[in-house]
Amino acid sequence: MTDFGFIHRFVPGASDYTLLLLHGTGGNQESLISLGQKLAPEANLLSPRGQVLENGMPRFFRRLRVGIFDEQDIRLRAGELKRFVAQAAEHYGLDQEKVFALGYSNGANMGAALLLLHPGTLAGAVLLRPVLPLEPGTTPLLAGKKVFIAAGTKDPWAPIEKVEALVRLLQDSGCSVTPRWEPAGHELTERELAGLQEWASRHIP
To answer: Is 155 a catalytic site residue?
Structure first.
């Protein structure tokens, strides 16, 4: 069976909604399956593995060093991911107007980039520990899209100012953004997971 350019796992669900699962650095197509099932038990799960390797660890785009991203590579990889979603949606019979990204860390940044560069690919996103990955050049049209952002005030990998820059850009683009701050680092807390489930139950039935 073709992989549409990405090694991936697909788990069919009972609803019309699909979660595009985007793992963090060192993860793979299995990493977010259980979280996706917990947040949206009825949704389809589409989980690609990042194609970039950093010291043998899969990622979705290159970084030049910690905190400094290769924006040209982000644009390239976002385009590849857009095509993957479209091809997988056609193959699996998914409603592409009901695809939400669920990304953690590097995967959250890839989800944000996909929203900013290719707004038609996603209906919204759950972004866990993201930052603003790049300036898109022009303000995207994101009216009607819904985004949940889980951020930690003590996160060394996602500084507060870079998270706030992402929130502002999404809001300026017409997106409905729900930012949730926790006094935590890069790892998620149980209290956050409860908040995620409540948000997902309303937006990704």
So the answer is: yes
> pLDDT tens digit string along 6-20?
999 999 999 999 999
Tell me 67's DSSP state: T
Give 176: exposed, middle or buried? Use CB within 10 Å, 0-12, 13-18, 19+: middle
% the chain with pLDDT above 70? 100
Catalytic residue among 15, 73, 186, 203: 186
CA distance 69 to 84: 22
Write down the catalytic residue from 31, 47, 155, 173.
155
| Contact yes or no for 44/92 (Cβ under 8 A) | yes
Percent of the chain with pLDDT over 90: 96
What domains, with CATH codes, occur in the chain? Answer: 8-203 (3.40.50.1820)
| Residue among 31, 47, 105, 173 flagged as catalytic | 105
Annotated catalytic residue 176: no
Q: Token pair for residue 143?
A: 């009216």
Can you tell me whether residue 80 is helix, strand or coil?
Answer: helix
- 23 as an active site residue: the answer is no
Is residue 194 a contact partner of residue 164, using CB atoms and an 8 Å limit?
no
Model confidence at 184: pLDDT above 70: yes
